[in-house]
Specification:
Helix content: 10-25%
Strand content: 15-25%
Bound molecules: NADP nicotinamide-adenine-dinucleotide phosphate
Number of helices: 8
Largest sheet: 6 strands, mixed
CATH architecture of the largest domain: Alpha-Beta Complex
Oligomer: single chain
Length: 342
């Protein structure tokens, strides 16, 4: 195949606060490649943490300045010299933010997986509820909520979920409802609150217009807190926790764009109430749960037992704005970049 244009999104400058489209990341259409089309790329909150000085160590590597961003995506195979991958198949894995990629070995895609998609779902779903965010919810819910040594969850258990309308939060809510729990969830707009209600959330509220602590004191105490945001929500959850409550610490987006973490003032509740905090990242749980995940979750999505919302941006050029939207909460569902339509 003749060389074709291979536009990409370059990590250009380390941001001090929120990432700035056109400055933090820039669109470069000057590259060519002898082509795997990338069809869809995922925009995830943790990408902000990768926009840092590489000397600062963390659980994920820093983006390389001057090189394309990379993250989870789904690619269409247009050429293959590997017998285990055929032209026309869809491949899930880690892709550079460029139109085409060449891989010497499947291990370069990290969690490479040929997607069979027997459920005939949109490919974008495989970077959302059927991809890394869904895995985060499914793995950690099973690991820390349905955990050995605890009695089965039921209607006496109250679960609180923050950033409830995103792909992680909304999957957790639906797993908690399947387990029979009462679910309280927060999100930042009325449109998101309507979605939370539509997936069975018992108490859905806008944390920007109502005080989290007031809601939790009225509807709690809470037995499980799924923390996606940290900050004042965490503080309220500590105050409203039942004795022996479990906190599943998934993310803290309130601190991703600031120099310092919010100083939580009531950490003494942890010992006073005998609370257990489980911090985790999704990758180490992958080997334990991924087969179950791919067997169960796409089927639940197809049957409508797990519902989702997506917020699709078209074209690589939209990446800078899409990254900022997720950090600011302007995304209306799982944020994806549709790179190629076919
Ligand atoms: P998402 O919900 O699609 O997007 C992030 C949401 O966070 C925004 O839409 C916004 O929703 C909310 N938010 C932003 N700033 C906020 C603030 N200052 N206070 C409160 N909420 C704020 O994201 P997601 O992909 O489902 O991820 C949710 C969380 O899980 C993130 O913290 C992410 O880092 C974490 N995560 C962790 C792992 C892991 O391995 N531990 C893996 C994946 C994701 P509102 O409109 O509701 O404010």
């Amino acid at each position: 195949m003749a060389p074709v244009r291979n536009a990409c999104i370059i990590f250009n400058e380390i941001p001090l606060g929120y990432p700035e489209p056109g400055k933090t990341v820039v669109y470069d259409s000057s590259q060519t490649i002898d082509p795997d089309t990338v069809r869809v790329l995922s925009i995830d909150p943790y990408m902000r943490g990768r926009m840092r000085d590489p000397s600062i160590t963390s659980y994920t590597p820093a983006f390389d300045l001057g090189k394309p961003l990379d993250n989870f995506g789904v690619g269409l195979v247009v050429r293959s010299e590997n017998p285990s991958v055929k032209v026309g198949q869809h491949l899930y894995g880690f892709y550079a933010f460029q139109e085409y990629s060449v891989f010497k070995d499947l291990s370069e895609l990290r969690r490479a997986r040929v997607l069979e998609n027997r459920e005939d779902l949109p490919w974008s779903v495989y970077v959302g509820v059927c991809g890394m965010p869904g895995q985060t919810a499914f793995y950690a819910w099973n690991e820390f909520a349905i955990v050995h040594g605890h009695s089965p969850l039921g209607q006496d258990d109250v679960v609180f979920v923050t950033a409830g309308a995103g792909p992680v939060g909304s999957t957790v809510i639906q797993l908690a409802k399947q387990a029979g729990c009462k679910v309280i969830a927060s999100a930042g707009s009325e449109e998101k609150i309507a979605f939370l209600k539509s997936i069975g959330t018992d108490v859905a509220f806008n944390y920007k217009t109502e005080k989290t602590l007031d809601i939790l004191q009225r509807e709690g105490p809470i037995n499980i807190y799924w923390d996606n945001v940290g900050g004042e929500s965490l503080e309220a959850a500590l105050d409203a926790a039942a004795p022996h409550a479990r906190f599943i610490m998934c993310g803290m987006i309130t601190s991703y764009n600031t120099a310092d973490d919010y100083p939580v003032k009531n950490l003494s509740q942890i010992f006073a109430k005998s609370l257990t905090l489980y911090g985790f990242t999704v990758s180490p749980l992958h080997d334990k749960y991924s087969d179950r995940f791919y067997n169960e979750v796409p089927q639940m999505v197809k049957e409508g037992k797990i519902k989702f919302t997506e917020d699709v941006s078209r074209g690589l050029e939209s990446t800078g704005e899409a990254i900022l939207d997720v950090q600011k909460g302007r995304n209306k569902g799982k944020k994806v970049i549709l790179v190629a339509e076919k």
